[in-house]
Amino acid sequence: MTSAELHPMATGHIPSYVTQADGSDFLLTFMFVFTVLVIVLIGVGYFTLHSIPEKIAHESNHPQFQLVGILALLALFTHNGLFWVAAILVAGFQFPDVAAPLRAIADAIRSLGNQGNDVPAPAAPSQPTAQREQ
Fold first, then answer.
1. Model confidence pLDDT, tens digit, residues 74-99
2. CA torsion, points 96, 101, 102, 105, in degrees to nearest 10?
3. Which of 18, 49, 100, 128 is the most buried (most CB within 10 A)?
């Protein structure tokens, strides 16, 4: 086409976002690729965010590692932030072991009680009491 055949109101150059005569649309292709990349990056960020409590618990060899994992999965599937906050709190803090001192006290008392007893324990009866009465 020569400039004599163009409409007098037409511009001399066509912007790149206008669809070409062969049907290729650069803007549509670019936006499709951009949208797919953004969705993938958001998904990776979302899954990475939800795995933070498990990574913390795994690195510190946390005793409640399975509980942290369950809470993180619940937060992932239910989209409930409270589960994720609970998982990060459980992973971040070690709960005190209250039963360990009590077990140590019980073991000490048991060992003190067995020191003075050299007398053997009484033998159990060989027959049940119901059979002896017959």
1. 888 888 888 888 888 888 887 777 88
2. 180
3. 49
